[in-house]
Each structure stands twice: as structure tokens, then as C-alpha cells.
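ok so dumb question maybe but i'm new to this and my supervisor (M.) told me to 'just get the structure for FMN reductase' and walked off. so i did the thing. is this what she meant?? sequence i used:
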Amino acid sequence: MSALSIADARPDAQTGGAVLRVVVVNGSPSLRSKTMGLVDAILDTLKGMLPIEASQVDVYRLGAGFTEALERDDVPPEVEAALRLAEEADLLIAAAPVYRGSYPGMFKHFFDLVDQYALANKLVLLAATGGGDHHALVLEHALRPLFAFFQALTVPVAIFASAGDFDGVTLLDPRVYGRIETALTDVADLLEARVRRRAAEQ
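this is what came out, is it supposed to look like this??
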């Protein structure tokens, strides 16, 4: 499977065919993981609110051209395409499992290559999974400061799910679903405004 994929596309007549461009940066080594199970729940909730086109960048599948790159000028075209996709999203979902108290190095390396100003004022939803609730600290102590550097607009409510919230990779805990709904409802007006602006531009 490609490191870059389109998960869903749902144009809507009420918005003139415009959709919200959502890009997931998946920091998990696995395509089927609790982290992506959490993302699936977020996307399903979002689909009920707005027409979306969801794309996914799997950082662990970007290849040697990504892992060996020290600077943006070093990356091959397919990695450049992944970076641009993230930079041009209307809503970026940054999703990662907790590894040794923080996000994985591959996840950080992807954002090391993102242009310093490309995420300014971009809406970013933070999502993470870990073995226990104490790992939720990664959201405020690692992920939010990372995107503060980029001057991004991180969604005020971040989403965390622990191992006990899942059956396999399927999220079950209604408390987490409630937090997802709260997070997205808080920024619904901003998301809808971006869809309408795209409709006006078409």
C-alpha cells in the first residue's frame, strides 16, 4: 500500500461541490493500529458534520528517500508530495502512538521537513494512543508545543485513547467518542467557513 492514500471523498451540493480537505499524518508503524482506530472514529464523526476528502500520510512507509533526508531539498518527489499534502490541508490530524513518553522519531522527522511557516493558522487536531491514561500527557507536553512552533491553530480539545478503550483496533469507549464530538463541535464553524470559502473559489 502507498504511503499516501485517499480515505474518503464526499462532495456536497449544498457547498457547491467543495469539500474539507482533511489530511491525517499517521505516526504509527502499522496501518491497522489503535492509533488509526482512533483516527477512524474521528473521521466518522467529522463525516457526519461536513463533506470531506480525507487523505493519509503513513510516515513509516515513505521509504529511504524520507528517512535519509536531512533537508527538504533532499527528498524525492513522492515525499515532497506528502509534505505538500499536509501543508495544504484545511484540517490536519496529527496522530501518533506514545513511544517512551513522546511521539515516535519518524513522526517528528516528517515535521522536521515541513516548511516552518506552512502550518501557520492551520487547524490541527491532536490525537494520540498509549498503554495507560498517564500517557495522555504527551498531548500537552509534546504534541501541542510542536505545533505551537509552527504557529498552527491546535484544536483546544485534544483526543487520547488508552489500550483499554479498544477491542483490538476498534474504539469502544463512549467517553472518548464524546471527547471527539466535543473537539470537532468546538471548531465546527471554522471548518464550515473553510468549506464555504473553497466553494466560493470554485
